[in-house]
Amino acid sequence: MTSSDLPLARRSDVAPGTTRRVQRDGEAILLCNVDGTFYAIEDECTHDGGELDQGELEGCKIMCPRHGAYFDVTTGAALTMPAVLPVRTFAVRLDGDDIYLA
User: Fold this and answer.
1) CA distances from 13 to 17, 22, 60 (A)
2) Cα–Cα distances in Å, from 49 out to 13, 17, 46, 99?
3) pTM to 2 decimals?
4) d(CA 61, CA 8)
5) Alpha helices, DSSP H only, in the chain?
6) Which of 17, 24, 26, 80 could covalently link to 70 via disulfide, CB atoms 3.0 to 4.6 Å apart?
7) Phi, psi of 52 (to 5 degrees)
């Protein structure tokens, strides 16, 4: 069994409007629940490497707590300065209450 066969978390662990930081193969991934739809992005601001899980999820946007840059968790796009590069996104697969990377 590889790490990709293991669930990242359970749906019930990530309430709507919240995030959860998980690790997969040494990489920090941020699970985001936007109105019941789950998204996964790298948990690192492309501006200065800050952890996005410390920021607020506002709809489909997450704010980096260091300098206020916003990212779209559905696409990874950098929405505001000082960030200009997108964060990496990961496809999510749901199976029952389990959340996997697709």
Assistant:
1) 12, 11, 18
2) 25, 23, 6, 25
3) 0.93
4) 21
5) none
6) 80
7) -75, -20
Write b or e for each residue in 2-17: b if 16 or more Cβ atoms lie within 10 A of its Cβ, otherwise e: eeeeebbbebeebeee
For the stretch 38-62, pLDDT in tens is 999 999 999 988 999 999 999 999 9
| Token duo for residue 44 | 């690192």
* Count of all residues that appear for the chain in the document: 102
List the one residue out of 98, 99, 74 whose CA is nearest residue 86: 74
**CA-CA distance, 31 to 52, in Å (whole number)?**
11
